[in-house]
Amino acid sequence: MKITDARTRAASGATTDEEALQAVLAAIEPTRLKILFLLGRRKRMCVGDIASGFKISRPAVSHHLKVLKNSGLVQTEREGQEIYYAVRMNRVIETLRALADAMERCCPPQRST
Fold first, then answer.
1. Among 7, 28, 66, 110, fewest CB within 10 Å belongs to which?
2. Can you list the alpha helix ranges (DSSP code H) found in the chain?
3. Cα Rg, the chain, nearest whole Å
4. 27-62 pLDDT, tens per residue?
């Protein structure tokens, strides 16, 4: 399944193990994880403001944002010429829960005696 497919299904509220995996893979990259935390604290930012907090180019930040958007972890809103990004916190939490559920189904934790 492609990441773009995950975005389409995420919009409908459906989450599968594969979609959760794709979202986690998108978020696990250190710069993307930092972007998610930044957006979580600031709520909504444009790419220029996000890029100002990193030592990478604006196009590189735009690429990371595209991956996060395609995975369904961030959403965009256009205002004039500017695009604003915001973390989809419910989607992040849903993804982490789906991952934990998949792990439990696959490899149930051993009970301590």
1. 110
2. 3-11, 17-28, 30-42, 47-51, 58-70, 89-106
3. 15
4. 778 999 999 999 999 989 999 999 988 888 989 999
CA pair distance 89, 79, nearest whole angstrom: 21
CB 83 within 8 A of CB 47: yes
Cα–Cα dist 49/46, whole Å: 5
Domains along the sequence of the chain with CATH: 3-100 (1.10.10.10)
Cα distance between residue 107 and residue 74, in whole Å = 30
- Chain position carrying tokens 């735009």: 62
pTM of the model: 0.72
